[in-house]
Amino acid sequence: MRPTLAVVGAGAKAVAVAAKAAELNHMGVDVPEVVAVERTGVAANWQAEGGWTDGQHRLGTSPEKDVGFPYRSSFPVLRAGAQAPGRNAELDDRMTRHSWQSYLIATGQFAEWIDRGRPAPTHRRWSQYLRWVATNCEMNVISGEVTRIAVDTEADAPRWALHTSEKAVLADGLMITGPGQPERSILPGNPRVLSIAQFWHRAARNELSAERVAVIGGGETAASMLNELFRHRVSTITVISPGVTLFTRGEGFFENMLFSDPTGWTALTLEERRDALARTDRGVFSARVQEALLSDDRIRHLRGRVAHAVARDSRIRLTLSTNQGGENLETAHGFDLVIDGSGADALWFVPLLGQDALDLLELGLGGPLTGESLQEFIGDDLALTDITPKLFLPGLSGLTQGPGFPNLSCLGLLSDRILGSDLVANRGLSERPSGRANASTPEIAHRAAG
């Protein structure tokens, strides 16, 4: 039986891996059976139902950076052997069947999109594209919310066990995707403090109205909410972020190439990589959002991290901590409405890990799980090094492998690396002489989650 790769979440990365696996399967290449465990639906986070958007805002990345981009496959098996010449090119050609342009042609939208000047699609349209790809490649999606991740040791080699309320999915490799839960906020339960999901729910009902509004966060999640706030009855909007100002994301050719082509990234020092990430990806606004900010005089910026939040006198008082000249200074500020747009949490999955899984990872890392330790241990295949079974963390792979892997910038390269990884010891990926791979169903143990 083929090894199984389980994916938590059925978003863009999961769809890209499933599509690439399907095409390799057609080419007679043994690849893992890909199964996604999804609590809502394919590409749900790009729809209003996912809580991260209202679905109407524009995609920040070019839609041509689709599930096959940059169409420069270098799949390990196809690089070796007498049949290697032209096979990666064949794989790229097959992946164009799942491209953004193919979707537009199939749905009768291509000419209009060209005539309108290739506009960025809405988040909702992007989700429709991803669902179209998932349907075309017959993506295997199990409906359910993962409540616990454990290690199953009953087989010859350890496997991951993803527990939902109804079953446990056993897999030889596990990929964690998604930004986490949009329901979290710094002061849960207070109607004057909104999580990301609560913000979009209130915005859809046109229930956003306040004198002094604070938005916590300096990344694209906060930026999309600022774009929405401009349309509502608010007097002042204060953006709170740790940066000295609201930086604009670099979007020129040279910056973009860092995302599309990670060649040479590993030759940079860690300091150089962190500097590049800070300038182009983390805590920065797109040029389009910055242009909108310039035209609205209600916007101001406060530097600092929120150290404490308390409800007092019909207001929310935030205590900001700022390092100035080596000293930690704290200042208090009052707001009528606070929106926690601090964005994605790369470690959102850690509370799901059972004690056996935690022990396995901490033993492999040589210490407790932290964002820094996990980032530094991610190898070329986007999995933690020296950990069996394989745990793929593309959302944390930017520092060691390149800034495009955590986002939508090189999904084709991401799928190559993950599918080209050996999931089971002594069971590498091999190419069959001819014919299509036999379909197999991932092993699913029907047992209640513990």
Could you give a short account of the major beta sheet? 5 strands, parallel
The protein's oligomeric status is single chain
CATH architecture of the largest domain: 3-Layer(bba) Sandwich
Helix content: 25-40%
The end-to-end distance, rounded to whole angstroms, is 27 Å
Morphology call: globular
Q: Class of the largest domain, according to the CATH hierarchy?
A: Alpha Beta
Integer tally of domains: 2
Would you identify the CATH H-level superfamily of the largest domain?
FAD/NAD(P)-binding domain
Please identify the structural class as seen in this structure.
alpha/beta
Query: What strand order characterises the main sheet?
Result: 3-2-1-7-16
Could you tell me the strand content as a percent range? 15-25%
Number of strands: 17
Number of helices: 15
**Low-confidence segments, ≥5 residues, pLDDT <50?**
426-450
Mean pLDDT: 87
Radius of gyration: 23 Å
Named CATH topology of the largest domain: FAD/NAD(P)-binding domain
